[in-house]
Design a protein that fits this description.
Strand content: 35-45%
CATH superfamily of the largest domain: Mannose-Binding Protein A, subunit A
Structural class: mainly beta
Number of domains: 2
Number of strands: 25
CATH topology of the largest domain: Mannose-Binding Protein A, Chain A
Largest sheet: 10 strands, mixed
Bound molecules: calcium ion
Helix content: 10-25%
CATH class of the largest domain: Alpha Beta
CATH architecture of the largest domain: Roll
């Protein structure tokens, strides 16, 4: 008995530790002053990739992708390179629009490498300026690590900072919304728990759509089983699940047309009420004042396809997005034209701290020095 107790204590820890990650600069902005065009500075010799709970280098998982992007870049004069010795085993590809961020820089791939190798690579980046008359400005260089190129941090100003992955089913096939909801929520990304994506702005809505190969499920629903806990119309779990005629969809009539996010941090947020639908263009791509089920009005983002979607044609209670124009439509759970689903990571209260990007700053003081007077 004592042996069993000891065995249990040794091999079955009661606390599941999920390591977070923070990539951080050394917080020493580099100053580049025009002495000579031969001047070269190291961007960030003190960059770290640590577990924030221990403040030691992160070792729980390797990285196979990353990027270095430039904010405030001047293509006519900025020269940003890494040391070849630090780049062994990495493939760096220059791009004018890294991961759809709108910024130039390098996308980087590698066989899975530990955080220490990525930190060495990032610390080796150098900056110089090829112009006789450099432009004074703040140049930021963003370093980010990740798992593979299907993951994208929403990097633009106003972005969520979340991660998104499109999962292709090789379709179009029948793969029910309720099935992929479970698949998404059992997926993790560096300790972040996934969920069927929730799009709450035009920026977020349009971000991943270029990766799709067809219709993709999103985390919205007006299905009674998904929304009963959210409705204010007298439903309760017991009432719904003891309704003998539920299989004939009678309870659905009470939920029909009242759409909620049913996943992620927004689970329980109402996004639409077809009963209050009076304007044919009301729900198309934008934030709109909708009448909620408690009769209040509130601004919510929706991107429904042309009126009259969502039309519940033949009984449609689950949200998907079209690849071609990033608009939404309702489908039945067993629609046969689903090509995949979008998983989002980030924003759940249970998530560990995961910061996979950081900005290093270079202040460039060139010939037009009036820029920094009073700086
Ligand atoms: Ca979201
Ligand atoms: Ca419906
Ligand atoms: Ca429809």
């Amino acid at each position: 008995m004592r042996f069993l107790l000891l065995f249990g204590l040794l091999f079955f820890p009661t606390v599941i530790y999920s390591a977070g990650i923070v990539i951080a600069t050394s917080n020493v902005p580099v100053v580049w002053i025009q002495h000579s065009i031969a001047q070269i500075v190291t961007v960030d010799a003190g960059l770290t990739i640590n577990d924030p709970q221990t403040n030691l280098p992160y070792t729980a998982q390797n990285f196979s992708a990353g990027y270095v992007l430039f904010i405030g870049y001047n293509a006519n004069e900025d020269v940003i390179t890494c040391l070849p010795s630090a780049a062994t085993g990495f493939t760096l590809t220059q791009s004018a629009n890294v991961n759809g961020s709108g910024y130039p820089g390098y996308t980087i791939t590698a066989a899975a490498k530990p955080a220490s190798s990525w930190a060495t690579l990032f610390r080796s980046f150098r900056y110089s300026n090829s112009s006789q008359q450099p432009h004074s400005r703040l140049l930021q260089i963003r370093f980010s690590v990740g798992e593979d190129q299907l993951f994208y941090a929403l990097d633009q100003p106003g972005g969520t900072g979340h991660f998104y992955k499109y999962v292709s089913l090789g379709g179009p096939i029948v793969k029910t919304w309720t099935t992929v909801k479970e698949s998404a929520s059992s997926s993790t990304y560096f300790g972040l728990t996934g969920y069927l994506a929730t799009f709450t702005s035009q920026l977020e809505n349009d971000f991943v759509v270029g990766q799709l190969d067809g219709n993709a499920w999103l985390g919205g629903s007006d299905d009674i089983f998904q929304t009963w806990t959210y409705l204010n119309s007298g439903f309760s779990k017991n009432q719904v699940f003891t309704t003998p005629t539920l299989t004939s969809n009678s309870a659905q009539t009470n939920a029909e047309g009242t759409w909620y996010w049913a996943t992620g941090p927004e689970a329980g947020t109402q996004i639409w009420d077809s009963k209050g639908y009076t304007d044919a263009n009301e729900g198309i791509h934008g934030t709109h004042n909708i009448r909620l089920s408690n009769d209040s009005l509130s601004e919510r983002f929706t991107a429904w396809a042309n009126y009259p979607e969502p039309n519940n044609a033949g009984g449609e209670n689950f949200l998907h997005i079209y690849k071609d124009n990033a608009t939404w439509n309702d489908f039945s759970n067993t629609n046969s034209s689903i090509a995949g689903y979008i998983v989002e990571y980030g924003g759940l209260p249970s998530d560990p701290t995961v910061t996979l990007r950081t900005n290093a700053s270079i202040y460039i003081y060139g010939n037009n020095t009036s820029w920094y007077i009073g700086f």
